[in-house]
Amino acid sequence: MFNPTRDQARQFLFDTWRKTHSRRIAHATEDLTAQLINKHPEYHELLAAPEQQSGQGLCAGRTAVNPFLHIMMHSPLKSSFHRPAARHPRAVCATTHKYESEHEAQHAMMDFWAR
User: Fold this and answer.
1) I need a surface site. Which of 13, 18, 45, 73 has the fewest CB within 10 A?
2) Residue numbers of the domain that contains 66
3) pLDDT higher for 25 or 58?
4) In a domain, 110, yes or no
5) 71 contacts 54 by C-beta, under 8 angstroms
6) pTM, two decimal places
7) Burial 91-101 (b: 16+ CB within 10 A, else e)
8) Are the C-beta atoms of residues 32 and 75 closer than 8 Å to each other?
């Protein structure tokens, strides 16, 4: 299992965003990550300027939400939503039907975990 450092995970997000704009997405993980980033336009500017983020904890001028962690948390949730029978179908289905979109349901699950 891949266990990246904080800097490696952030670099993956920067690289994926750059590859998205040059149409050079190479594998499924990058494609999934690009889809998740596209659902968060509030992070596009941040991901387009990695040189401005080096050495920082949370990004300057941002709220308490860590945009890097937020996007990375979507990935396992999205996988669960697309393979619910293998994990926890009742919880996923119940959560999905309660919200307007799968993306909103993922946010609700993240909020629950953050408590």
Assistant:
1) 45
2) 6-114
3) 25
4) yes
5) no
6) 0.67
7) ebeebbeeeee
8) yes
